[in-house]
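Problem statement: downstream parser choked on a complex file, so we are re-checking the raw output for the fructose -6-phosphate run. The parser issue turned out to be on our end (a line-ending mismatch), but while we're here, posting the original submission so the record is complete.
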Amino acid sequence: MELLVVKDENEVGRAAADAVIEGLSGAEPPVLGVATGSSPLSTYRHLAEAVKEGRFDPRPVRAFALDEYRGISPEHPESYHAVIRREVCERVGLLPEHVRVPPGRAKDPVSACAEYEAAMAAASGVDVQILGIGSNGHIGFNEPGSSPTSRTRVQRLAPQTRRDNARFFGGRVEDVPEECVTQGIGTILEARRIVLVAQGESKAAALAALVDGPVTVDCPATALQGHPSVLIVADEAAASRLTPRG
Ligand code: F6R
């Protein structure tokens, strides 16, 4: 894994956007894995800048989102359907018909998840996957205990994740859905290149476990240690607990 520590969130976004553009170049069509939450927002801002500057063409890009809550409508402003529409389609300019989000409302989640995986495979897989990391080390919504070979499926959100995400729901933990559909760790690991972004002190312990710790299901992100092409871009606060490198 390659680690890049930069000053702040804006610089994380700049470096991650450049890595995304580089990783997608030459792919036909380019396939991007998109994350939600606050971590990738500066990356999307810099991708939008690159579009304005003529350095990135979003129109041919196909995209697959990592996860979606269960139990809220796609019209809810904090559903990941809505977040992806705002931040990825409207801001960066990916075409809505090229972007898929996991099936949070499916009546038959098992076959809907299998269909999502099949759509990813039919697109020849993901060229670059953008990831954030949860304060408890989750990637996607693969909470501690998730198998490294897991596939797209329904998961219960950990109490820590619901507390962390209450900020998107007016501070009310009880309004954060209890379940989600998430790509599995095995699904995520199939991406050809992974760009993980982390900002802020609240990510420092999880990032230290990812970079310096042993591979363990207690910190799902550590499964990335076995991937051949991972770039971690962190700001100084998120990197503050890493073992100093010589
Ligand atoms: C979101 C996702 C999650 C988030 C993580 C960090 O699609 O898959 O793993 O990346 O929960 O969230 P933020 O960025 O809001 O701190």
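For whoever reads this later: Helices lie at 9-24, 41-52, 80-92, 109-122, 159-165, 185-189, 204-212.
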